[in-house]
Every structure is written in C-alpha cells, then in structure tokens.
Prior knowledge:
This protein is an alpha/beta fold. The protein folds into two domains: 9-195, 3-Layer(aba) Sandwich (Rossmann fold); 203-267, Helicase, Ruva Protein, domain 3 (Orthogonal Bundle). It contains eleven helices and nine strands. Helix 2 (46-53) links the parallel strand 2 and strand 3. The termini are far apart. The structure holds S-adenosylmethionine.
Amino acid sequence: MDRLPRARKRFGQNFLASAGTIEKISRKAGELADGDVLEIGPGRGALTAALIESGLRVTAVEIDRDLVVYLRDRFRESSFSIEEADILKVRFADLLGGLDIPRADRFLVVGNLPYNISKPVVRKLVDERETVSGAVLMFQKEVAKRLTASPGSRDYGPLGIFAGLFYRIQAWFDLAPGNFRPAPKVTSTVTLWERRDDPFLDPASEQRFRTCLEVCFRNRRQTLFNNLRHGLAGGEPAARELLEEADLDGRARAESLEPATFHSLARLWPEALPE
Length: 275
Ligand code: SAM
C-alpha cells in the first residue's frame, strides 16, 4: 500500500509525530520488556517501527482494518504479528498462546491509547495481570492524574486505588497536542506500570473491595458515614457498626484514606449484603 490510511476520528486516531518521543518510549520499552511487547492500537506504526528496531517482538491489536492491512504489509519481514480486533474483546492470554515462542509468558503492554477506552483498558490490565509484566501507556493527562494520585488529592479515587493495588504506576512525562497528527484537544501523559508481585489483596476479596470503593466515594463531598449509610443495605446502624469495627472516624472523607484502610474496611464489609 503506497498511501497512508487516513486518520479516523471515531477510532480516536491521533498519531504520534515526535521522533524524540517515539525514541524515548521505545528505549524504555526495550529496558522493561522481556522480549515481547503487546501494542494496543499501533495506528500507522510510528511506535511499532521503533519497537521492532530495538529488537522487540511486537504483537499488535488494531481495530481499523485499513491500518491492519497497511501494517501487515509494512512489517511483513519483521518479528511482528497483528490481529484485527477490538482490544477489549480479546484476551491477552489468547494472544500469547498464538505466539510460537515458548519463553514468552508475559507481555509488556505499550500503547498510545484512544482515550475513550482508557478505563476499560485499566480494568483489563488488572483482570488479566497474569499475562502482563508491566506497561508503558499514554493517557489523557486527567486520567493519568487519577491513576497516580495520592490520598488528599482531588484526583484520588477508585480508579487509581484499584489499579494501584496491582501495579506501581507513575506519570513519566507529558506531551502537548502538537506532538500528534491530527492534534488532539488535550494534553497526554505517558505512564509507567510495574506489576506488583505482592498485591495486598487476595483475588477472593476483589469484588468486595470494588464495592467498598464505590460506596465510600459515591459522593466525594460527603463524609464516610453518610456515604456508608446510603450505600449499605443495613442503612445507618450498619454504617455505625462497620465504622466502629474498623476503628474509623465517620466524619472523614474517603479521599483522605490510604488504600490499606479501604482494604481493612472491605474485609469487614457486611457478609450478607449483595456485593
Ligand atoms: N500508536 C499509534 C501512534 O501513536 O501513532 C496510534 C495511536 S491512536 C491515539 C489510537 C489507535 O488505537 C488507533 O490506531 C486506533 O485505530 C486504535 N484503536 C481504537 N480503538 C481500538 C480498540 N478498541 N482496539 C484496538 N485498537 C483500537
């Protein structure tokens, strides 16, 4: 294919056009990956080419058929494979299973994500963490702030607390709209994810923990007590009992509590209630 496929708005296509940034990300991926990279949304292959160049095997998932055809042809001689699919509908393990490489058991996930799928991708990284060693991912700056916020910050909330249980996430650097073609309206942030080998949440408690976060952050301006009394089926008495058992001050706001405190609270969450 001689001509580059055109950019499609509906797939969130803003292609990276900064050679320095492409080089920086691919060098970091080379340091962090154990050979295999899963690239989400390779687009026209700006990053893909640099990843391959640094000696990585790239498995890519791209939703846009024209781009898939273009990339298959462009990288036909390279250690590159691509699946035409919605990343939210494929399992990472199935992609790994399709590789003819016995030593690969985890991917480094890399991508300049279309912003409309940020949250489900975060959820996927958590749910399928068995096949992920870490990630180098670009998000809209606001989402990156939420992923990396500390207690006390107004960006601190369920998204970052939950993902933070399983990964150490840090904001690496920001990118202004001018680094993309076409330019998006927002600033982007590249984030680094390292999978924790010692998550302090056992899998059986995951749903309970999620529910606990949802209830506690239901209304950020409200006290913990008010959120609990509205969110627990047992109402006010259940809220009082839970706070007492957890030795927590109900006047506090959820955004001031450490992740470990939510963990304790989730462990005491009333058993009989639907989660
Ligand atoms: N990585 C390229 C770059 O930096 O130039 C493209 C980034 S662009 C922001 C996002 C890419 O993800 C596009 O190529 C788009 O077609 C693709 N995409 C959008 N939604 C997707 C989905 N659900 N699954 C897989 N790819 C998707």
